[in-house]
Design a protein that fits this description.
This is Butirosin biosynthesis protein H N-terminal domain-containing protein. It comes from Fontibacillus solani. The longest helix has 26 residues, at 185-210. Helix 1 crosses helix 2 (29-35), helix 2 crosses helix 8 and helix 7 packs antiparallel against helix 10 (288-311). The protein folds into two domains: 11-40 and 55-179, Alpha-Beta Complex (Cathepsin B, Chain A); 185-311, no CATH class. Helix content is 52%, strand content 18%. It is an alpha+beta fold. Strand 5 and strand 6 form a beta hairpin. It has a six-stranded antiparallel sheet with strand order 3-8-4-5-6-7, sandwiched between helices. A three-stranded antiparallel sheet has the order 2-1-9, with helices on both faces.
């Protein structure tokens, strides 16, 4: 197996990497992405007829990743707009801050932002002046500027499609990381496995409470939708423009992470990555019957992976 190098929707991992780079620490976004636990499992939100190939919650995962990497940091969240502006004004005089989740529909420097309402995103802000925030957006917008009024709207989580997020946050950010200790990959691996199990179990509890489906049940539901011709435009766009391709990259990064310690888990994630890539290519060609057959394989690999993760 050889590495994939290229673009990908790793907004919080890339933003975290930039935040750490601001203090001279270089950490790969691919490692950060894995340590967040995002990209493990799957969830089907019945209210939206929408699947996400993840049980992890990004803003919780970022904090956990920083912990496992050996950093301390300041993390703030709240529900008061005035307090938010005052806090980030003070923080940005001293440090850059990583903000998210943000609603991409209000990130007005993006040419297509009007079509992105409900999509969550993360950026690194480094200055605020005259009602404008300056930031690096890992989606391809370095040195972007955003009106503070748009940032306030973007910071509210009430419209986000990923229902694992709390719906009442006004803002959330991290700043001022400091290296507390050096961690070996072996140490991080053993801590990460315990955390990954928590991600699965927490998602199961949330799903049971809200009537959602997780794991093989979520993937089987998607398969029925696809093979039954019940592919709404929103679901189709989500699969072809985001879910399959980012799923392939995440699974490949998990495969690389597991390789030194658990070759079997690594192999399962590699095979899953290949199937995600196949699903993407078939979906773009519009061959949804073949997509449905490949989704069956995704479910089988997911079931095997979870079983082995909890056993070893």
């Amino acid at each position: 197996m050889f590495s994939y190098v290229g673009n990908g929707a790793y907004c919080y991992a890339n933003s975290t990497s930039m935040l750490l780079d601001s203090i001279g620490e270089q950490v790969s976004p691919s490692l950060i992405e894995v340590l967040t636990g995002v990209g493990l499992g799957a969830v089907w939100f019945e209210q939206d007829n929408m699947i996400f190939f993840s049980n992890g919650i990004p803003h919780l995962g970022v904090s956990k990743a920083l912990d496992m990497l050996g950093f301390t940091y300041k993390e703030c969240s709240g529900r008061d707009e005035t307090e938010f502006v005052e806090q980030i004004s003070a923080e940005l005089m001293k440090h850059p801050i990583m903000m998210g989740p943000l609603d991409m529909g209000f990130l007005s420097y993006m040419p297509n932002h009007h079509y992105l309402h409900g999509c969550d995103h993360y950026v690194l802000a480094y200055w605020l002046e005259d009602g404008w925030v300056r930031l690096h957006d890992p989606a391809g917008y370095p040195f972007a500027t955003l009106p503070v009024s748009d940032l306030i709207h973007a910071s509210k989580t009430s419209r986000l499609q990923y229902r694992f997020y709390p719906s009442d946050l006004i803002y959330h950010y991290w700043t001022a990381p400091m290296r507390l200790q050096q961690r070996t990959l072996n140490e991080m691996y053993h801590e990460a496995v315990l955390y990954f199990r928590e991600v699965y179990l927490d998602a199961d509890r949330n799903a049971l409470e809200h009537g959602w489906k997780t794991g093989i049940d979520a993937i089987t539901t998607l398969q029925r939708h696809v093979q039954g011709g019940k592919i709404e435009p929103g679901l189709q766009g989500h699969l072809t423009h985001f879910a399959f391709q980012v799923g392939a990259r995440r699974a490949l990064n998990y495969s690389e992470f597991f390789q030194p310690e658990n070759p079997r888990l690594s192999e399962l994630k590699l095979m899953q990555s290949e199937v995600f890539g196949t699903c993407h290519s078939l979906a773009v060609r519009g061959d949804w019957h073949a997509v449905g057959e490949s989704i069956r394989s995704l479910g089988e690999f997911e079931e095997q992976f979870r079983e082995l993760l909890f056993r070893d």
